[in-house]
Amino acid sequence: MVFNNYTSVGNLINKFHISYIEGNYIPATKIQINKYFLADLRLVINERVFENSQEAICEGIIYPILKEVWKPYREKITLWSHQPLSPGNELSWVPDYLVTKKSALGRVVLDHPYFVVVEVTKDGVNEGWGKCLAELIAAQRINRTKERAVFGIVSNGITWEFGRLKADTFAKNTQIYTIRELAKLMAAINYIFHHCYLETER
Question: In the CATH scheme, what is the code of domain 3-199?
Answer without folding.
Answer: 3.90.1570
